[in-house]
Amino acid sequence: MRIDKEIIHPIHPQHKLKLVYTETPFKCDGCKEAGIGLKYACQRCEFDLHKTCAVAPATINHPFYKGCEFEFKYKHPGREMRICDACRNDVVEFVYHCKGCGFDMHPCCANLPQALDDGERHLYLYLKLSSSCHHCGGKGPGWSYRSQCKTINLHVSCAKELLVESWQAMHLKVDRNKVREMQTRIPGLKGTSKNQHARGGKVSQIAGGAARLIVSAILGDPTAIISAVIGGFLS
Ligand SMILES: [Zn+2]
Ligand SMILES: [Zn+2]
Ligand SMILES: [Zn+2]
Ligand SMILES: [Zn+2]
Ligand SMILES: [Zn+2]
């Protein structure tokens, strides 16, 4: 696939957006979720889009919802607040929506790889959890990644929480103000620790490499390079 180094995007038509790579988490101005890695950024304003969000095709199909056609929308056509069926986070703006059944997916969630390989094991994406999630201990709704050997079971939403916790822990040691600033900039990073009882760094021990890989996929850029970067968050 051809990747344009520069694009003009309809929601920010006044300036060109340039493809850049960043190791600092950013907030995507399209889907409003956190991102890392490749993004299209305005060099003049503080405006960023996940690469996936910036070049989202108008319609897509998804292996989990056979027979559905998902349309890309800048804003959800419904009036009530919607959540993403994959990660269970709010849908604020950019979304893939199926008119027929009402399923919604963030563009990055729609692009989550069906299989990830961390060098040691394969992780597969599932629509439902079959056994308890390593992070929240539950079997609640939302997609999950499971390893072939079944030792790793992690909600996509929990992997996001894990990233936030690790990221915050890392920065709390360094600079409290930085954490607060980041929380303001990326609303998705705020108050996500609903599962206090289930914490304790267990996941990063069991599944260090695997968790890193899942997290980088979730942040919109499933590449091995990024998993190394995020290693800092989880160790
Ligand atoms: Zn986005
Ligand atoms: Zn601009
Ligand atoms: Zn449908
Ligand atoms: Zn999502
Ligand atoms: Zn979970």
TrEMBL record:
Pfam families: C1_2. Residues 10-54 form the DC1 domain. InterPro entries: C1-like_sf (IPR046349), DC1 (IPR004146). The keyword Repeat applies. Keywords: Repeat. PANTHER family: CYSTEINE/HISTIDINE-RICH C1 DOMAIN FAMILY PROTEIN (PTHR46477), PHORBOL-ESTER_DAG-TYPE DOMAIN-CONTAINING PROTEIN (PTHR46477:SF17). This is C1_2 domain-containing protein/C1_3 domain-containing protein. It comes from Cephalotus follicularis (Albany pitcher plant). The lineage of its organism: Eukaryota, Viridiplantae, Streptophyta, Embryophyta, Tracheophyta.
